[in-house]
Amino acid sequence: MKLLERYPWLRRWETLLFVILCAAVFINISLSEHYFNIDNLANIFHLSIEKAFVVLVMALVIINGEIDLSVASVMGLSASVLAYEFEKGASLESAISYAMLAGLACGLANGFFVAYLNIPSLVVTLAGLIAYRGAARILLEDRSVGNFPEWFTSFALDDVYVSIPTLLFVLVGLILIGTLVYQFTNLRQAVEEGAAFRFRKPGPVGLVLITVLAAVLVYMLALSSGAFEATTYVFAVLYLISLGILQFTNFGRYIYVIGNNRAGAEYAGLRVKQVKMTIFVMSALMAAFAGLMYAARVGNIRANAAEGFELDIITIVLLGGVSIFGGTGTMVGVGLSLLVVLNLRNGMSLRNINDNTRASVIGALLILSVLIPNWAQTIQRFLPRTLSGDNLTLDLENKEARESTETA
Amino acid sequence: AQDGDPIVAEPGQELNMVLLPKTLGNAVFDQAHEGAMEAHEELENPGELIFNAPTPDNAIPGQIEIIESAITQEVDAIMISANDYEQLLPSTQSAMEAGITVVTWDSPVAPEGEALFIAQVDFDETGQVMADMALSILGEEGGEFAILSATPDASNQNAWIEALQTVLEEDDTYEALELVDIVYGNDDPDDSYNEALGLIDSYPDLQLIMAPTTVGIAAAAKAMFDEGLCSEIAVSGLGLPAEMQEFTELGCAPQFALWSFTDLGYLTYYVTYLLATGAMEAEEGVTFEAGRMGTYTIEADPTREDALRVLMGPFSVYTEENIDEWAMDEEEMDEEEGEGDEEGEMEEEATEESDAG
Amino acid sequence: MRRVRYFIRVQQLREISLLLILAAVIYFFGREIEDYYTARMYNRIATQVALIAVIAVGQTLVVLTRNIDLSVGSIVGFTAFYLGDQLSKNPNIDLETAVAIAVGVGATMGLVNGLIVAYGRVPSIVVTLGTLAIYRGLLVEYSGSQSIQFRQLPDWIKTLPSEVLYENFGLDLRPLPAIAIGVMLVFQVVLLYTIFGRRLYAIGSSPEAAELAGIPSRRMIMLAFVISGALSGLGGFMYLARIGTITTDAARGLELQVVAAVVVGGVNIFGGSGTVFGAFIGVILISTIELSLIRMQINEFWKDALLGAFIMVAVLIDTFIMGWLRALWSRTELRRASSVQKVQSI
Amino acid sequence: MQSINLHVILCAINDFYFELAWIMDSLPQPVLQMHNISKSFGATVALSNVSMSLYPGEVHALVGENGAGKSTLIKIMTGIYQPDSGDIIINGNPTRLHSSAQAQAHGIAAIYQEPLVFPDLNIAENIFISHRRRGFLVNWGKMYRDAKKVLKRLDVDLDVRAQARGLPLAAQQTVEIAKAISMDVRVLIMDEPTASLSAHEVTQLFKIVRNLRAEGVAVLFISHRLEEVFEIADRITIFRDGELISSRPTHEVTREDAIRDMVGRPMGKVFQRQPSEVENVVLSVRDLSHRGKFEGISFDLHAGEVLGFAGLIGSGRTDIALATFGIEPAHDGQIYFDNKPVNIQSPRQAIKMRIAYLPEDRRQHGLVLPMSIAANITLPIMQDYANALGIVQNEKERQTAQDYREKLSIRTPSIDLPVRKLSGGNQQKVVLSKWLNTVPRVLILDEPTRGIDVGAKEEVHRLIDQLAKQGIAIMLISSDLPEVLAMSDRIVVIREGRQMGIFDRATADQEQIMGAAMGQLEMERDHA
Ligand SMILES: Nc1ncnc2c1ncn2[C@@H]1O[C@H](COP(=O)(O)OP(=O)(O)OP(=O)(O)O)[C@@H](O)[C@H]1O
Ligand SMILES: Nc1ncnc2c1ncn2[C@@H]1O[C@H](COP(=O)(O)OP(=O)(O)OP(=O)(O)O)[C@@H](O)[C@H]1O
Ligand SMILES: [Mg+2]
Ligand SMILES: [Mg+2]
Predict the structure, then answer these.
(1) Model ipTM?
(2) Closest by CA position to B150, among listed B239, B79, B65
């Protein structure tokens, strides 16, 4: 308990996820000799890369207090538009831009209904889920379209060898993230969710540590060069960008503020509607992009592409500590949760555990990850008072606290 | 090996094999699994027979994932009933590059991504059989009928429906049959039930619903049963005897057809074993012996270019006369496996009957 | 107007608006489709609506408390299978026992959801997203991937859906729609006239205030989940009776349909407002659109897009009608207020 | 041998207790006793070793600065918080309270500082929702009738069938009061019930409180308005920094004593504001109307002027402010800013023109509770704290927050603390900082001293004066009539959405303004 008081970050959701991640990796290594194999590690991302893309923006949407159930349908629609245009003989480049335009249109529609007509996003995007899939059906009917040019599919399928300049670039990036993580774990006072992380320059020891760590990672990357597909690298970059946006910019701050207290944000003169609009457009554009990546990966598209992805995506975001009521959650948590889920899926897949059971395990994990800390807290309350002290309640309950701010 | 004796499998070689049907939770695929297990034991393979499949809401990405994970696990062979003709191609191709034998059954992938395809029946024959059943139900004067299929993009169903349409067009025998509509129940019982009712509401003169999907045929039969329309509108198509027995006896589904999925699994296993052990090459004209099922030959697939297939055949057509025995047999099958010979004979009988009708 | 005002409360404007939309939808399809206004169409809609309506009632109770139950589809699937299995093993189970088994199994699953949500303080979407997968997994384990076949069921359940309880002008009242109507009426009364019902509204309206007001929120929320589970169990029974052949995929994806119906039915997804009756109309509205689209024989590939568009338009119109009715309402309210003032000053 | 000894001892103990009990019985027994209660939140000690008793038939006032621990104490009394140490003794029995339901079962009911109504329920239901023993079924007719009766006792005219959503704060507070007084309670705790009530409602409330006292209910009353405390209380208990400083019968305490005990130092005279030099007109409003809310509002607001707005609750003052700030734009009429006609359609536009509005409901509209103090303060002008890339410059932001923390003496261990953890008054200061930070030219203050302690209130008053001196035009909406009178240069009186006149401070007095605010009818009723 003393420990928790001294190091508030121990109480953070992200810490818990990190522990789970370590456990998952450990279990995977001990249960399957095939797990710790560079191709398999690459596959972890490769096989779910489209979901991973959408998770990034879905996190923003949910933190903003909304939900977007239509993402999978938008993915399907963008892929279908691509296929339709390509089938009609358009060049792939123009087909891609049409697909992205379709995504944009979906995003604008969602955003307009939610932000300007004040219809709950759950309703709007549920209708979108049906309608956009329907649009894809209208375009492709029962056909399947493939034979995309080599360069397109290779983007998702071919491994990328990393050059020295890239490695240097990555090195710098890693040092930056390291700095972030360093000061993140170094906060004496619990920085509340939503407040931007505070930049505090790490001391010389910290800098050396970070640099060494980054160097090791880069070395590993050099060794593994040629194992990862281009999409994985794109994902890494997008992850960093979305982390930056959410955690460090004023736009990120707006997302949190609106998610916490929409009326308050309006009174403070924030452009609530525009922010919501932007987020839904971002979400749909990302989904459209993910749909293209899906087309590149499977090389062939039907109207049912990516059907049913939405629940998986939402599960990952929620496990990442993002409150469904909005206002809480960090990109670090979402990243960790993504790793946890993908690793678990991969490990179970290597043990030939079927889909239903895998979904059950992840479902159980989702429940337990919230339940157990809550229990710990309850048990704590019944311990002799000298041992506990209510203030030490794990901050993990923040999900509940969020309920208190209801926007009219 | 063009001529000469059929190749015979040498038992006892170690192979890890994956049997990958379309989805979990479909009775026919469990029967295929049983057949494969039977062969697995018969051939005394000390390796593993892995049975795994995705859930319906994760069908294609799930199959890709299982294939990729099989590659990582360095299995020797994958037997797949593909959810999509092209989308699985990159994965099966990389499996083949990794030296894994990929055999498709029930539903193929494009020829580049498979060694060969074990066709349950000839796809054109399916159209023929459905046309025959329709004719025998509706009689000489014919009438209106509609198709209740699975999903609009189910490749098997689409091929069969196309074959049926070709038969109807080209053969004058079936002139009196009028196909009025094709609807889709998404292989969901509830949707199929509603679509079936929608058909009878939209077409007052409808006399037959042809459902080339096990889910659809059962749901349609139940819908007619509930509405008390069994005497006016018949249901037919491809169905599982165990699920359809009662409807056949009640007259809701006077005739339907299917092949044995147990046999399909068995045959698939044999072929894959032969290919993966190197005893046989996937080439046209190769003849081999598949345990209790006898001798088969690899042939060019007439429906697909550059593709090879092994045709299992034949169809079994079920009517009120033979459904009883079939359902009972299947129940026994659940308990004690085997009794293959008897089944084989029955099949012949059934086929003859349908030809006669 | 004052008299009307006395009997209709603001909250009920929503139902009125929904009924108007339903009428408009029926009018629209009536013009497009021949022979639309027939007893047959009514019967189709009635049977189609029954299952979802029952589950939507339970979902409404849960949503009112600012929670959501996504596991309903899996509960329906599991109970349908479990009951089918029991019936095939003991064919002499009678109707009452069968319903009791289904409701009991469903309630147990709902109880698990409820306990974790209410006492484990885990957000309901997290819990039920989890149990959605877990209950389905249980079903797969339990079934050993076998299916329940029509012929294994006892005769009474086979004929249950087609029995006619009451008939007039060709409009039948069959058991399944009768169950749905019964459940809807019972819970409409529960919500309006019992302390339990009103407390559900209070909890969803402001969980914090409910806690401070000394409402046993946790117990109420748990109860809402138990009821939702029990009604899903009842839904499982209905599913078995209607479909007859049950696989491990039974009722997969039902949760989204139910949530859509509840939401279209004007139940506020953030809790606190909405009625069972509204949800019921929501179900009817969606089913009517769906079935009418089937009847319209439009191109297969257009159906989904049209359904989505129709739902969106319905919600939009609803928003506008609601806004209009509300404005009308507050105007009469004001007039009344000022007239009272005048009386006082005289 | 041994047994006899034991017997003797037991008898002695028994006798002792018998006598003790007899003595105790003859004294009035406290219904609720707090014994050595301590409670801390992390590093903040909210209460340390506090003991106090509530007797039946007594109005017990609790006063103290913001953050002194008053609300914390009553939350412990009602089982919302558990004390770190100490006992709660109810009717002589030590009891542990785990929920407010339990406290209610013991006859303890509370009106909390922040009204918590159920927005989707109607007013009658809001009043009766937590009543016990109502039976199984709801009798709507009876409920409406009873609700009307209760509201009549408070002399407020609210439609009991109306939904509580969107009720102004004051009306919410009345509903809360109605809820509490309609309950059958032995201990009634009221945490700043009058904070947003105007004189008329306060009078009604006090009538009821006196009735309850006569019925033997123990009332615990918290308020920052000392006049009220001296008017109603029998005993005054003073808290400072989580400690109980003094607890004396009212007649033994003077206003000066009380303030000294609260603040820890003697304080000078009540702040008196000198009329400011009026400059040019900044904002002028002509015939502003909003259907159903207000009509025909016209006034000029000069730079450096404090324009007071007086009226009863629900008179529409907030609505006028909302219209001016663009949240609910008016339907008719014209607003001129710097003599140019403007059309303010959103708060954003208003902020651009450097109009600021401090809302009356700070939890719903003023603050983002889970976020840090710093983040709250910089919110309306975030863009000024971000560089070209939109990246927030934390140091700059923290510096601003630090400045305001000192300037307005916000009591908090750190500016990184979420606002949720501050006491009510300190939260108010955060909202004020937030708007001052936008450097407004027109500052609309809606109940700016609601829930603020005497010391801080004076600080706010000085601040208002200072701001006015700097040339900021201030609209001061307050239900605290003495405050309006003391602070304003001119006073607009609003009654039922209509402007009853603009009074000059030099000539106006309390009677006159009350008369205008209430209209003749109510005045007569009041006197009768
Ligand atoms: N939930 C909480 N977490 C952390 N600190 C808290 C919490 N609630 C109160 N505090 C702190 O405890 C102290 C006492 O707060 P309390 O609300 O009891 O003050 P108060 O006397 O009611 O003040 P006011 O007159 O402003 O309402 C304050 O310093 C406050 O910051
Ligand atoms: N106690 C009440 N009785 C009746 N109506 C009320 C009451 N309180 C508020 N209202 C409604 O609210 C509207 C005005 O509210 P508003 O908040 O603008 O008034 P206000 O003068 O600012 O009051 P306050 O001083 O409480 O902030 C009125 O139109 C009236 O219908
Ligand atoms: Mg307080
Ligand atoms: Mg006001």
Answers:
(1) 0.83
(2) B239
Tell me whether strands A300-301 and D281-290 are parallel, antiparallel or unpaired.
unpaired
Q: Which residues line ligand 2 (CB under 6 A)?
A: D 156-158, 168-171, 174, 196, 293, 311, 313-319, 360, 479
**Please, are residues D111 and D190 in contact by the beta-carbon 8 Å criterion?**
yes
- Contact D/B (≥3 CB pairs under 8 Å): no
User: For residue range D134-193, what is the model confidence (pLDDT) as tens digits?
Assistant: 667 788 888 899 999 988 887 778 888 888 877 777 788 888 888 888 887 889 999 888
**Model pLDDT, residue A287:** 97
pLDDT the model gives residue D1: 46
Contact between chains at A128 and C131 (C-beta distance less than 8 A): no
Q: What confidence score (pLDDT) does residue D98 get?
A: 85
Residue B84: count of CB within 10 angstroms of its CB: 25
DSSP readout, D59-94? EEEEEESTTSSHHHHHHHHTTSS--SEEEEEETTEE
Question: Are A269 and D42 within 8 A, CB to CB?
Answer: no
Which amino acid belongs to residue A191? V
H-helix or E-strand containing A335?
helix A331-350
Q: Indicate the residue of B54, B88, B152 with minimum beta-carbon distance to A141.
A: B152
Subunit partners of chain A (3 or more CB pairs within 8 A): B, C, D
CB atoms within 10 A of CB A276: 25
Q: Is the pLDDT of residue D12 over 80?
A: no
Q: How far apart are CA B306 and CA B115, in angstroms?
A: 11
Q: What is the mean pLDDT of residues A145-170?
A: 79
Q: Name the residue of chain A whose CA is nearest to C140's CA.
A: A356
A226: left (phi over 0), alpha (psi -120 to 50) or beta: left
Mutate to test the pocket of ligand 2, among D123, D177, D318 (most ligand atoms within 8 A of CB): D318
CB neighbour class for D25 (10 Å; exposed up to 12, middle 13-18, buried from 19): exposed
Whether pLDDT at A62 is above 90: yes
Residue boundaries of the structural domains of chain A: 2-161+226-353, 355-408
The token pair at A21 is 């991640």
Domains and CATH numbers, chain D: 31-263 (3.40.50.300), 278-354+441-528 (3.40.50.300), 366-439 (no CATH)
Amino acid found at B102: V
In whole angstroms, give the CA distance from residue D156 to residue D312. Answer: 11
Mutation test of the interface with chain C: which of A70, A73, A348, A366, choosing the one with the most C Cβ atoms within 10 A? A366
Query: Which amino acid would we find at residue A135?
Result: A
Interface check for C192 against chain D (CB to CB < 8 A): the answer is yes
Output the CATH code of domain C2-335.
Answer: 1.10.3470
CA C79 – CA C70 distance, rounded (Å): 16
Q: Do A299 and B151 touch (CB under 8 A)?
A: no
Contact A366 C126 (CB under 8 A): yes
Structure confidence at residue D523 as a pLDDT band (50, 70, 90):
very low
Classify domain A2-161+226-353 by CATH number: 1.10.3470
Q: Which among D363, D370, D394 has the least Cβ separation from residue A193?
A: D370
A67-120 pLDDT, tens digit per residue, is 999 999 999 999 999 999 999 998 999 999 999 999 999 999 999 999 999 888
